[in-house]
Amino acid sequence: VETVMKRKKFNVTGICIPKLHYMVDITDKIDEIVRDYIECNEYFTINRARQYGKSTTLELLYGRLKKDYLVLDISFEAAEDCFTSIYTLVQGVVNKIFRALSENDVSDALMEIWNQPIAAELPLDSLSAKISDFCKASEKEVILMVDEVDKVADNQIFLSFLGLLREKYLKRSVGRDHTFKSVVLTGVHDIKNLKMKIHPGQMECYNSPWNIAADFQVDMSFSAMEIAGMLEEYEADHHTGMDIKKISSLIYTYTSGYPYLVSSLCKNMDEEVLKTEAVPDKNSAWTKNGFLTALKLLLND
Q1: Could you give the CA distance from residue 108 to residue 222 in angstroms, rounded to a whole number?
Q2: pLDDT (0 to 100) of residue 5
């Protein structure tokens, strides 16, 4: 029995999946991140506005890195109960990484190292020793990826965790410790620029524990050429007769390559403009008139 493939669509919610969604090929951006940051042992934050493709980039980066590294992919979304004390934070991190390890093919010996109990008296020291033992024993270099990090970045307890990563990074630099090869944080804000107050009434201070982070310079917006590549895939499936160069240029001109706006306009041309009187058929949807109708729908929304 033949399996009927689901029609690809343009996606504006959640992670884009290549086999389900029309999407810009960001292979060159992933290559740049790996070459200029991961392979250089950098700790850094991917901070961009909402719906800028951070989670999709993180997922594609994970897929690329797991071939050569042991990648621990965790998130602090909906993790408020981890921040009642240093001990609950450490135990929360240990549990999240354990679940990440369960998704990887790691040896029983490595799992045993990670499953050693955390000392209640000095939990951060215990976590530090656990990370050192684990990274030293791992045959593959270990990378930590943390999503939604700015949701907790103004929390003093979380700063203690960042301080631990910073201390181990600095000691590793002089050959005195084993730790993660690279740490990748993602969020809307650059957490080293967030201000916080440790107690009410105190002066604001910056999140200094993350001042070791390299500036993230990769351009995550889409160029007209990259948008054209996505439209070429769509045109191969639908044969609308569109002028790909013209439509991709229009999309870029009106969006500056902001990923959400690019996908929204394409989704409107693919699905929504046919519901209007201005666009009679699928081929007309991918003309300048169809584009302007899609733009009007987006602005009204």
Answers
A1: 43
A2: 53
Is the distance from CB of 110 to CB of 38 less than 8 angstroms?
no
> What's the average model confidence in pLDDT over 200-220?
74
Other beta carbons within 10 angstroms of residue 293's beta carbon come to 22
Q: Is the Cβ–Cβ distance between 218 and 207 less than 8 Å? A: no
Q: What confidence tier does 186 reach under pLDDT thresholds 50, 70, 90?
A: confident
Query: Is the model's pLDDT at 239 over the cut of 50?
Result: yes
pLDDT average, residue stretch 280-288: 95
Per-residue confidence at 49, pLDDT binned at 50, 70, 90?
A: confident
Structure tokens that stand for 101 in this block: 């390890």
pTM across the whole model: 0.87
Phi and psi (nearest 5°) for 142? -110, 135
**Counting beta carbons within 10 angstroms of the beta carbon of residue 66, is it exposed (0 to 12), middle (13 to 18) or buried (19 or more)?**
middle
Whether the predicted pLDDT of 195 surpasses 70? no
| 58, two tokens | 């993180």
Evaluate whether 222 touches 266 at the Cβ level (below 8 Å).
no
